[in-house]
């Protein structure tokens, strides 16, 4: 594991991360600057663990740049991906309000910069700015809805529907306009996609090949997909 680099957000070449985080959207410029002074930044390389399951956290962690996967292992030892987070997303909130162990692992999918706010500092923020607490509750409720929907779809929707829905989600989050459609930089490998939607890697590869044969997508290596007919994925 490489050594994590620390820096103060005020000295970052990037825009202040707090300006891009939805939970801080109700703050004015002066308040955002106060939040920024509380932040410590770290860098993680692809494959490094940011959080280990059953560890205790002392920080709220915000992604400034990069992507991470949130996962845990099933009883059978198979990786189960719960979320893909990118800039503006946060995690580690459970241990900020009570001394609770993490129920998941978090791993960098690429070079990732995170911003951390200490537990005590964050609790003071909630006292001074209650709107932040409301935003966090809203986001956590949204995550619960997504998990419930995902669990339900695992049991009731077929593989084609799951893959199509995931491609639409990736297109919305990571897609860029292209003369022939939408080009998507995939955050996950074929195996990662399989772990996300609850199927086998071979099944994912086979279904993607069918979509390519039908002219719906073009696979560009292992990391990119050109979606030629996004409407076909919605049907």
TrEMBL record:
SUPFAM superfamilies per the UniProt record, alphabetical: cAMP-binding domain-like, Winged helix' DNA-binding domain
GO molecular function: DNA binding; DNA-binding transcription factor activity
GO annotations of cellular component type: cytosol
Segments forming domain Cyclic nucleotide-binding: 23-143
Residues covered by the HTH crp-type domain: 157-231
Keywords: DNA-binding, Transcription, Transcription regulation
Domain of life: Bacteria
Stored Gene3D superfamilies: Jelly Rolls (2.60.120.10), Winged helix-like DNA-binding domain superfamily/Winged helix DNA-binding domain (1.10.10.10)
Protein name (Swiss-Prot/TrEMBL): Crp/Fnr family transcriptional regulator
């Amino acid at each position: 594991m490489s050594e994590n680099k620390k820096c103060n957000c005020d000295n970052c070449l990037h825009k202040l991360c707090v300006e891009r985080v939805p939970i801080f959207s109700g703050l004015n410029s002066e308040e955002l600057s106060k939040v920024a002074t509380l932040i410590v930044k770290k860098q993680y390389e692809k494959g490094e663990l940011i959080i280990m399951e059953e560890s205790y956290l002392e920080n709220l962690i915000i992604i400034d740049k990069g992507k991470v996967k949130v996962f845990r292992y099933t009883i059978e030892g198979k990786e189960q991906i719960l979320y893909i987070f990118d800039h503006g997303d946060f995690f580690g909130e459970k241990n900020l309000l009570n001394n609770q162990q993490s129920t998941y692992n978090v791993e960098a999918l690429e070079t990732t910069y995170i911003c951390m706010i200490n537990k005590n500092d964050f609790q003071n923020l909630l006292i001074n700015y209650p709107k932040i607490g409301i935003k966090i509750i809203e986001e956590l409720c949204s995550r619960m809805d997504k998990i419930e929907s995902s669990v339900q779809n695992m049991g009731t929707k077929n593989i084609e529907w799951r893959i199509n829905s995931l491609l639409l989600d990736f297109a919305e989050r990571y897609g860029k306009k292209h003369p022939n459609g939408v080009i998507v930089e995939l955050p996950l490998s074929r195996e990662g996609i399989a772990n996300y939607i609850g199927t086998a890697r071979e099944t994912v590869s086979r279904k993607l090949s069918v979509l390519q044969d039908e002219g719906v997508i073009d696979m560009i290596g292992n990391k990119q997909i050109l979606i030629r007919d996004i409407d076909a994925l919605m049907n």
